């Protein structure tokens, strides 16, 4: 296993899960269970398997202790530095990078806590190195969800976010990035882009994995230009556009400017060209990312953004639909060496009807109970003569006698009274479902939870 020393890594785990508030009202997004493992386990495991020995994890201050306790129980070898950001401030991903800037002294890898992907990180790093890129972003095929798949809750038409991603066909240079929602019927492409990149494809079915390798100079620029709040929505599109520009004469001549004196909002090139060795390497390079013409290497660009497209499985569990889908499909894959079935040695299971399911610590499953293709968290109580299938049962849930739970999500601490039947439902944290209830495609949560943004 290779150990990487030229990169630092940071896992973004401070998000509130604003697109899945039905689930995050009672539990931090990064700790939501996916196949009975906390969501944050998956990016941490990917980094560990790739050879990284330490990483920074950014969370909000209020959940720092809880996240640390959960991760400690995973027994991972990767060393973590948990950093809590203020709860009351609405900090985006770019703001979070500024918050930890004094700890960053190398090129930076930024990973979202909701990324679950079977990727070869070394291939992504090699792509970044080959071009000495400013930013390299990982793109994945959008997961295909069967029309038969039902997300718990009311029937509704899913409207996933669609990115428009322009990629040079010969070089994988990222030349255009925008959200489809920013346009109505058509998009405008600048003549400058068309002249410089004569052959590129505009993709609408690629998933931005929120896995970025960022050159240290970009981090420096970000810290001194506080107008950017997010990486994906603001900084990355800005830098992609700047590839089409050229340094001003002043910036090109002034190799060692005073950072305090410069107008950082106007001139990103003061950060990008302050490495004389980098410029020399470019001039001497035998590699030309546009070998089909006679222009200088890399068009003599000092800002270079690329994508690495992986054809392996991957998704982001950032919506209720994708969270449900991840729990349903991951047991069928050889991802992360997870087993199809895992019953904790600390659980008390009296039933013999457990099929392809996960049972957590200190959970009681009574006799004459059937559990199929489900994930049962720790501290749950499942009483006798109950049937559970294709469901996610979180921590400390109680399901009483003679219940039927089909394709449901039951959040922390909720209680399902005896004789209830729930199909395609989501029950929020601490909710109580009265005995004899017969519910289909319902969401039962506190209204205050749904209004959290």
From TrEMBL:
<keyword id="KW-0648">Protein biosynthesis</keyword>
<dbReference type="InterPro" id="IPR029044">
    <property type="entry name" value="Nucleotide-diphossugar_trans"/>
</dbReference>
<comment type="subunit">
    <text>Component of the translation initiation factor 2B (eIF2B) complex which is a heterodecamer of two sets of five different subunits: alpha, beta, gamma, delta and epsilon. Subunits alpha, beta and delta comprise a regulatory subcomplex and subunits epsilon and gamma comprise a catalytic subcomplex. Within the complex, the hexameric regulatory complex resides at the center, with the two heterodimeric catalytic subcomplexes bound on opposite sides.</text>
</comment>
<dbReference type="GO" id="GO:0005085">
    <property type="term" value="F:guanyl-nucleotide exchange factor activity"/>
</dbReference>
<dbReference type="GO" id="GO:0002183">
    <property type="term" value="P:cytoplasmic translational initiation"/>
</dbReference>
<comment type="function">
    <text>Acts as a component of the translation initiation factor 2B (eIF2B) complex, which catalyzes the exchange of GDP for GTP on the eukaryotic initiation factor 2 (eIF2) complex gamma subunit. Its guanine nucleotide exchange factor activity is repressed when bound to eIF2 complex phosphorylated on the alpha subunit, thereby limiting the amount of methionyl-initiator methionine tRNA available to the ribosome and consequently global translation is repressed.</text>
</comment>
<dbReference type="InterPro" id="IPR056764">
    <property type="entry name" value="LbH_EIF2B3/5"/>
</dbReference>
<dbReference type="InterPro" id="IPR005835">
    <property type="entry name" value="NTP_transferase_dom"/>
</dbReference>
<feature type="domain" description="Nucleotidyl transferase">
    <location>
        <begin position="9"/>
        <end position="143"/>
    </location>
</feature>
<keyword id="KW-0963">Cytoplasm</keyword>
<dbReference type="InterPro" id="IPR051960">
    <property type="entry name" value="eIF2B_gamma"/>
</dbReference>
<dbReference type="Pfam" id="PF25084">
    <property type="entry name" value="LbH_EIF2B"/>
</dbReference>
<dbReference type="Pfam" id="PF00483">
    <property type="entry name" value="NTP_transferase"/>
</dbReference>
<keyword id="KW-0396">Initiation factor</keyword>
<protein>
    <recommendedName>
        <fullName>Translation initiation factor eIF2B subunit gamma</fullName>
    </recommendedName>
</protein>
<dbReference type="GO" id="GO:0003743">
    <property type="term" value="F:translation initiation factor activity"/>
</dbReference>
<dbReference type="GO" id="GO:0005851">
    <property type="term" value="C:eukaryotic translation initiation factor 2B complex"/>
</dbReference>
<dbReference type="GO" id="GO:0005829">
    <property type="term" value="C:cytosol"/>
</dbReference>
<feature type="domain" description="EIF2B subunit epsilon/gamma LbH">
    <location>
        <begin position="355"/>
        <end position="435"/>
    </location>
</feature>
<comment type="similarity">
    <text>Belongs to the eIF-2B gamma/epsilon subunits family.</text>
</comment>
